[in-house]
Amino acid sequence: MKKVLLCVLLTTTSAFAQSTSNVQYLANEGVMVTYSDSKVLFDPLFNNSYNNYQMVPDDVRSLIISGDAPYDDVDAIFVSHYHGDHFSAPDILAVLRNQSAVRVYTTLQAIDALRDAATIDDEQLLTRVTGLDLGYGDAPVSIEYGDIRIEAVHIPHSGWPSARTDIQNIAFRVTLEDEGTVVHLGDSDARDVHFANDADYWEERQTDLALPPYWFFLTEQGPGILDDRIGARHAIGIHVPATFSDPAQVPPELKGRDLFTSPGEERTIQN
What we know:
7-stranded mixed beta sheet, 7 helices, 25% strand
């Protein structure tokens, strides 16, 4: 009888055991995701609000650059594209100078900006930066780094096909320790045609958390992309205007949607 009870208890415990990731909002599309011993940042450092978006608080920005807690032991930084509300070359170089283990993954356009801002002494730092030369229609790429699987695909910047067609915008799918998977879409255009091109890619891995620009929730095809193409178990809208920090300013169409609206907000996501 004791053996039977033990089997039942073990089965029950296993069935309800779930891993979780912690997600902290930095500002605009800046997010830190932590799972177990892995920690990654998306679009964390930028220098332009365009008079519309929130900036990373100065004290948080300083801690990210110096690598002090809670932004210590960061494994990787992902930058979706080189626009000033997503990327600051001097700040990324400062992180590389201060943190000897961190790696950066971004577009070739951002790499060019890093090289322009770098000094001769920074050349060795750039060996820890991976540039992804992805264009429309290119096959997704996959990179293994320690306990992190990095997958990336080009999705056109919002405004396609009439604007910003020259911008390399990367949607990163990152899996931490083979369990927690997060998709950061950068400034992706919310048309299904871009995702249908790589339908098998999106179907081959379960996404625990998607981080789309908030306008995905407002377009005709955006919600279906998140639910049916990406298959996200949960989605949090980012890139929100600064005015959204006042709940009264959030449009009625977004009521009930999960949004990051204030730097420092956190969520716990079940994987």
